[in-house]
Amino acid sequence: MRLLVVEDEAAIRTQLAEFLGGQGFAVDVAADGREGLFLATEYDYDLAIIDIGLPEIDGIELITKARAAGKSYPVLILTARGNWQDKVTGLEAGADDYLVKPFHNEEMRARVNALIRRASGHAKPQLEFGPVVIDTAGKQVLLSGNEVDLTSYEYNTLEYLAHHAGEAITKTVLTEHLYQQDFERDSNVIEVFVGRLRKKLDPKGELELITTIRGRGYRFNPEPNTPAVNAPDADSDTGAAHNNTAS
Questions:
Q1: Which of 44, 88, 236, 243 gives a 20 to 30 Å CA spacing to 69?
Q2: CATH number of the domain to which 193 belongs
Q3: One domain, residues 7 and 114
Q4: Is 46's pLDDT higher than 90?
Q5: Is a pLDDT exceeding 70 seen at residue 242?
Q6: CB neighbour list of residue 169: distance below 8 Å, 6 or more residues apart
Q7: In the predicted model, is pLDDT for residue 205 greater than 70?
Q8: Helix (H) and strand (E) counts for the chain?
């Protein structure tokens, strides 16, 4: 997931970039409202964190203009303690939630995850797709109750596809939303990650969890196939015994 952080206080900006980057997010930062507005309207993010008291252009104007430009991604505003007017004004301008400074990193992480999850229509941290469960809070994936060992890149790819289940997602979109700008965009790494995910989550090819759409990318199936369960043979001992009992 790619996030935008617009914060003029260098210490907080660095704190957020390092912490969220360590959580597997790709993070773009801006130190003032003018730069933040350019990024907010030029690119599609999965979430933006915007301080209200910004130089050049304040956070309220930034949010208002981003919404006017058609940007619908979730926005989390940062406000000063006790300034309830900023919270109300920010929410009315189009923000989705707020966090009061100073804040704990874990609360920031929880709010970011919740906003991204709700934007994709999920009420719980656990995204369930047949036998596959993606725990977005713990960054853990289960297959039929057993944990699947994924690299951070594999997990990020899977979570993004799951949050956009049913949509055709191109490799370009995946690289833009998941990885830092210096990522090797011209390589076939996305194909490699998707191939590994298929082997780890669907080794027999029964679920058809991630399908390739020729010329368009990949689509995550929100309703994966249920592997067939072999029914008892009618001529088996169990079947015969049942028939004898019934007669």
A1: 88
A2: 1.10.10.10
A3: yes
A4: yes
A5: no
A6: 160, 161, 217, 218, 219, 220
A7: yes
A8: 9, 12
Please report which helix (H) or strand (E) contains residue 12, including its range: helix 10-22
Q: Coil, strand or helix: which one is 20?
A: helix
For helices 152-163 and 105-119, the axis angle rounded to 10 degrees is 40
| Structural domain for 135, as ranges | 126-220
Mean predicted confidence (pLDDT) in 138-155? 93
In a domain, 208, yes or no: yes
Could you write out the DSSP letters of every residue in 55-124?
A: SSS-HHHHHHHHHHTT--S-EEEEEETT-HHHHHHHHHHT--EEEEES--HHHHHHHHHHHHHHHTT-SS
Residue 97 has pLDDT above 90, yes or no: yes
Token match 């874990």: residue?
Answer: 106
CATH number at residue 36: 3.40.50.2300
* Residues 165-187: tens digit of each pLDDT: 999 999 889 888 887 665 555 45
Whether residues 177 and 101 fall in one domain: no
Scan for tokens 């991604």, then name that residue: 73
Whether residue 102 has a cis bond before it, omega within 30° of 0: yes
Closest CA relative to residue 215, chosen from 178, 176, 168: 168
Burial category of 170 from C-beta neighbours within 10 Å (exposed 0-12, middle 13-18, buried 19 and up): middle
Same domain, 105 and 162: no
pLDDT at site 236: 41
**C-alpha–C-alpha distance, residues 208 and 224, integer Å:** 6
Output 225 or 100, whichever has higher pLDDT: 100
